[in-house]
């Protein structure tokens, strides 16, 4: 009765990896219990997610072919576009979200077009616009730019509006830090940068005001939801972002958080379910409205059982 933090399954988003090929369901070595699916094998997982009653699914595409420009990201028949079409055909009511970034599609693994050894911010914006539009045309209900280029939220809003998608929201990865917690994801998506790091476009985790400025900027450009990422070590920022804005806040509990729990639990040192619940509740207690997590299905079950929520 006096519990202060309340949450609902509909606030959970599950990130899912799609690969090219047929009849593929392969476990991701760096993320125990998580799989890459080919489009023809998506149904089984989407059905479970749909039955679990979670709020949405975020798709990540892993193409066979990568090039300098990341052209697979905005190909009409690209892997993630195929994934959206399939998902909408099978489960039209399941809310589908597109992660908009170039790093899974570029041969060099950076989140944009290169100019020498640097990412060219403004040239990348155009490709991000094309990527977002192609995802929405394929059926994505919302797009979530994770590239961290300056001005991308406004640029994506503009192209969506121009094409009549005035009601399609943008969830901006606003306070996204250059974090070692993304390590297992980069193995999963084969997207580790071939040289250098992402520190020219993702934020230094020493910085708090800069994160708030990024949020401010994204709101001004038309973001509908702002995100803090990672979640676990960033509860202070989730709270600050929540207090400064009226729009919904999301927190992404990333691959490293997931894999730390899975491997430590597998070694028998912690109770996986208990830790998972504690992490999720702490993100909601910090102020997030939406929680993106590889544990979405398991958390939904814990909410059903009344263990948390
Ligand atoms: C794409 C992207 C990344 C993640 C989400 N979108 C990787 C990165 O920025 O390096 C990380 C998600 C996770 O670790 O679970 N830029």
UniProtKB/TrEMBL annotation:
GO cellular component: cytosol
InterPro entries reported for this sequence: ALAD, ALAD_AS, Aldolase_TIM
Keywords from the UniProt entry: Heme biosynthesis, Lyase, Magnesium, Metal-binding, Porphyrin biosynthesis, Zinc
Binding site for 5-aminolevulinate 1: 186, 198
SMART domains, alphabetized: ALAD
Catalytic activity: 2 5-aminolevulinate = porphobilinogen + 2 H2O + H(+)
Residues binding Zn(2+), per UniProt: 101, 103, 111
UniProt-listed SUPFAM superfamilies: Aldolase
Residues annotated as binding 5-aminolevulinate 2: 255, 294
Family named by the database record: Belongs to the ALAD family.
Subunit structure: Homooctamer.
Protein's UniProt name: Delta-aminolevulinic acid dehydratase
């Amino acid at each position: 009765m006096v519990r202060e933090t309340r949450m609902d399954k509909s606030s959970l988003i599950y990130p899912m990896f799609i690969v090219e090929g047929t009849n593929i369901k392969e476990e991701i070595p760096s993320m125990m219990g998580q799989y890459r699916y080919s489009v023809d094998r998506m149904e089984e997982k989407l059905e479970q997610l749909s039955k679990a009653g979670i709020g949405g699914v975020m798709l990540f595409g892993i193409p066979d072919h990568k090039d300098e420009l990341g052209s697979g990201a905005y190909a009409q028949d690209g892997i993630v576009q195929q994934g959206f079409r399939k998902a909408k055909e099978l489960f039209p009511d399941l809310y589908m979200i597109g992660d908009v970034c170039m790093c899974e599609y570029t041969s060099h693994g950076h989140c944009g077009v290169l100019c020498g050894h640097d990412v060219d911010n403004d040239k990348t914006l155009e490709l991000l616009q094309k990527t977002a539009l192609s995802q929405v045309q394929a059926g994505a209900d919302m797009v979530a730019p994770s590239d961290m280029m300056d001005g991308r939220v406004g640029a994506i809003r503009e192209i969506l509006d121009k094409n009549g998608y005035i009601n399609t929201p943008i969830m901006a990865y606003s306070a996204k830090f250059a974090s070692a917690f993304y390590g297992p994801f980069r193995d999963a998506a084969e997207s580790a940068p071939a040289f250098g790091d992402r520190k020219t476009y993702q934020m230094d985790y020493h910085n708090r005001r800069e994160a708030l400025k990024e949020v401010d900027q994204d709101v001004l450009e038309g973001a509908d939801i702002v995100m803090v990422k990672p979640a676990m070590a960033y509860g202070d920022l989730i709270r600050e972002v929540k207090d400064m804005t009226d729009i919904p806040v999301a927190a992404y509990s990333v691959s490293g958080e997931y894999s730390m729990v899975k491997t430590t639990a597998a070694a028998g040192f912690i109770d996986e379910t208990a830790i998972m619940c504690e992490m999720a509740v702490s993100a909601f207690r910090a102020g997030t409205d939406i929680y993106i997590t590889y544990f979405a299905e398991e958390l939904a079950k814990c909410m059903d059982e009344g263990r948390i929520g």
